[in-house]
Amino acid sequence: MESAEIARRFLRFFEERGHTVVPSASLVAEDPTLLLVNAGMVPFKPYFLGQKKPPFPRAASAQKVMRTLDIDEVGKTTRHASFFQMLGNFSFGDYFKEQALPYAWELLTRPESEGGFGFAPERLWVTVYHDDDEAASIWQHKIGVPADRIQRRGMADNFWSMGVPGPCGPCSEIYYDRGPEYGRDGGPVADENRYLEVWNNVFMQFERGAGGGKEGFPILGELPAKSVDTGMGLERMAAILQGVDNIYEIDTTYKILDRAAELTRSRYGRNDRADVSLRVVADHMRAGVMLVGDGVLPSNEGRGYVLRRMLRRAIRNLRLLGAGEERYMHELTATTIEVMGRQYPELKVDAANIHTVIDAEETSFLGTLRTGTAIFDAAVEETKRKGRAVLAGPQAFQLHDTYGFPIDLTLEMAAEQGLKVDEEGFRRLMQEQRDRAKADSAAKKTGNADVSVLGAMLDKAGRVDFLGYDLTVAEAT
Ligand code: ATP
Ligand code: MG
Ligand code: MG
Ligand code: MG
User: Is the ipTM of this complex over 0.95?
Assistant: First the structure.
């Protein structure tokens, strides 16, 4: 079953059950607490909070989402993408658990010939929040899931929030057992690779305040109404329904991976490191093209930096695959537009612009790599020669300051060489530079030449790297 068909089926099922189908919002979040949309519910947040009256009691969507929090997992696990699509049904104070769970079960187990996904019930496992007896009882008594396939989990796994202030509540996840060749028995609690999480049903009931982490955060109180928010991972469903090993091998990603393999004359499935690189390239091309399609431009801050990071990581991984100085981004962008264009025809209309943006980023980054890599290699050589395991802060700073190497690039390249980086030392130097620039521009205001603009530039450059870390703050679990 093609990805586009999976989305169609999901939306049709819920439309037939009184849900209004709402088109995907842009990846660029309107919500000021988020850089990018990280879940299907984000555009509906004001309805859950009771800040706005929903124009319909029920909705369904196929939402584009980005999770920078998962970047390090990309290509290494079988199931994490940076850009993916979340299929969701939503109730705004309308139905609650008693209706949401039977809907989910029905759609998953209904035969394919009748518009469902045709999963064998004995393959499905579910989890509930540890004290949610109500959800457990619905699964067991109303739906008929055997008690030993209903598992209970705590806050970190089964209490969902956006990761920032907003609606939250206990949730119930549905897992598909891929079979013993994928891992050990014992359900999702034992092995999340074998038991693949496909769908999360969140029972929105409370409001989360600022602060706290995954394991606990302040609850401000109850929401005005009990609501439902669900998220089904389209790519994970596609991996199961297309009978492939992982989400990078599905229809809308594998063609990009395959093209990257062809261009770099590498072969997928022969060597672990190369396979990870090919998956990263395919994943990041999708993310990059979708972000540019939504109007994001590469820059050194905020969402522009997320985009820059995606494109640069794709380019770097192409080099790890042996691309050298060859430029492959244009070809890969074309393939990505072609495969994603089936669901997002606007990409084809915008193709020329997308190419221009991505080609320009490739030009600039290849230049950076050309000058910086030799310096980096020398620093690594020196570090190793001295028998050290940590690249010194001043070296990381010089790479950043003189050669434009963002710190995460240095961290990544160092890790490939088995080295750590003195990040604290790096940060200290960045701070000193910023302070100097400020003092300088203050002093110069009284002098002849106005170099305050230089201070502002340095300030801006100085912020770059830290945003890379802050990005993860605004992520859901
Ligand atoms: P996981 O535990 O596997 O990281 P999650 O619990 O963080 O997933 P949710 O926040 O519940 O995920 O998101 C709803 C659904 O979106 C998941 O059930 C899954 O199908 C899908 N999903 C989540 N993260 C990713 C990702 N990085 N790539 C692809 N699909 C994802
Ligand atoms: Mg999970
Ligand atoms: Mg989940
Ligand atoms: Mg996760």
Answer: yes
